[in-house]
Amino acid sequence: MTSNSNLSNMRRLVEQLKLEASVERIKVSQAAAELQQYCLQNATKDALLVGVPTGSNPFREPRSCAVV
Amino acid sequence: MNPFISPLIPEMATQEVQLNETLAHLKTESETLKSKLEEERAKLHDVELHQVAEKVEGLGQFVMKTRRTLKGHGNKVLCMDWCKDKRRIVSSSQDGKVIVWDAFTTNKEHAVTMPCTWVMACAYAPSGCAVACGGLDNKCSVYPLSLDKNENLAAKKKSVAMHTNYLSACSFTNSDMQILTSSGDGTCALWDVESGQLLQSFHGHAADVLCLDLAPSETGNTFVSGGCDKKANVWDMRSGQCIQSFETHESDINSVRYYPSGDAFASGSDDATCRLYDLRADREVAIYSKESIIFGVSSVDFSLSGRLLFGGYNDYTINVWDVLKGTRVSILFGHENRVSTLRVSPDGTAFCTGSWDHTLRVRAICSLI
């Protein structure tokens, strides 16, 4: 009977919504501050952000070196 | 109430009425819960991310150049993944070919021809000793990579996952032993590689699931998935439960990727926007969009610090976003057709894009102006 499967679907939906409603949340201001802090703390290690010392990037164009 | 129910079976009629009443009651309850959820989320929405980031120094101009172009696929590149060694790449194509490249030298190290076309998913095993792939065959198969270049890889193929529709994405978990898959059949699933056994299935999407990403290992056993139902769902891998769900996109979600700290994730959609969802605030906290950007986003990934979000678009470009300030910092050209896949290398020194133009490009920063 289709109504029975609709019923069990609805019951599952209500249970799922109750679960999602019970999640503990923090304020966006706090969450945003922590995202920002992570960015800033790791900025120096981010090669795509700050670059790497010339010569140490494995994907640089191969250069010829002179042996002195 | 159904007027055609025979009065000779009054019991059935009463049951039908009861059923409809319970259904209506549940419907009202679900509507109430949905509004309550929105209300609770809104209460904590005290500020925007870009407002918090106002005092952060802006980023300079970026020059990112293509350092390597990988040519060899005979048709659209659909997916790619980096090896943990930061130099090897696996890619898969519409023509059924899966290729393993050494991105430093651009040499092809392995090539496999799948029995199907549209290999939409591929992934490198954490050990670097195997790759997984699948697509229109509805399966995910694992190929151990042989050191002997002459060995026929297809002979050692292991069928791991079986879905009832196409495989859209796959990823090994922390080891070579388990694979997580997502499918056009609307589900995600966790499989044991050795036995092919289904360990857990994840039901909740109302349409095709297009993408998934595992949380960084320190954050625990969760993953996020995105689908054609416009939803991004966060799942508990052990219980199979959907623990958080986000529905703010206006079209299919093609790509999801965790922020490096694991506290948030980004998504890219056919609605031409990328969005950032914070898991602890339980809401969307940023939208990355411009009126001039009207083509869908196929794939997204973060730079190592999470400050940059790279998006591959269907208009052949890559847009680079300042995650904190919400602004675009660069637009990159080069591909001659849609960008279909994009991943930053494991150590963050470069990123690779795959395109419908049959090529893959590896880009690294050139200089800061």
The oligomeric state is heterodimer
CATH topology of chain B: Methylamine Dehydrogenase, Chain H
How many extended strands of chain A? 0
How many domains would you count in the coordinates of chain B? 1
Percentage of residues in strands of chain A: under 5%
Can you identify the CATH superfamily of chain B?
A: YVTN repeat-like/Quinoprotein amine dehydrogenase
Shape summary of chain B: globular
Number of separate helices of chain A: 3
Main β-sheet of chain A: number of strands, strand sense, barrel status?
Answer: none
Largest interface: A-B, 46 and 68 residues
What is the chain-wise order of helices and strands of chain B? HHEEEEEEEEEEEEEEEEEEEEEEEEEEEE
Radius of gyration of chain A: 27 Å
Distance between the termini of chain B: 72 Å
Radius of gyration of chain B: 23 Å
Describe the structure.
Chain B: This is Guanine nucleotide binding protein (G protein), beta 5a. Chain B: One of its GO terms (biological process) is signal transduction. Chain B: It comes from Sphaeramia orbicularis. The complex is a heterodimer of chains A (68) and B (369). Chain A contains three helices and no strands. Chain A has 68 residues and is mainly alpha-helical. The longest helix of chain A is centred in the first third of the chain and has 20 residues. Chain B contains two helices and 28 strands. Chain B has 369 residues and is mainly β. Chain B has a four-stranded antiparallel beta sheet with strand order 1-28-27-26, with no helix packed on it. Chain B has a four-stranded antiparallel beta sheet with strand order 2-3-4-5, with no helix packed on it. A four-stranded antiparallel beta sheet of chain B has the order 6-7-8-9, with no helix packed on it. Helices cover 10% and strands 44% of the residues of chain B. The model of chain B has no long low-confidence stretch (mean pLDDT 93). Chain B is globular. In chain B, strand 16 and strand 17 form a beta hairpin. Chain B has a single domain, classed as 7 Propeller (Methylamine Dehydrogenase, Chain H). At the A-B interface, helix 1, helix 2 and helix 3 of A face helix 1, strand 1, strand 17 and strand 28 of B.
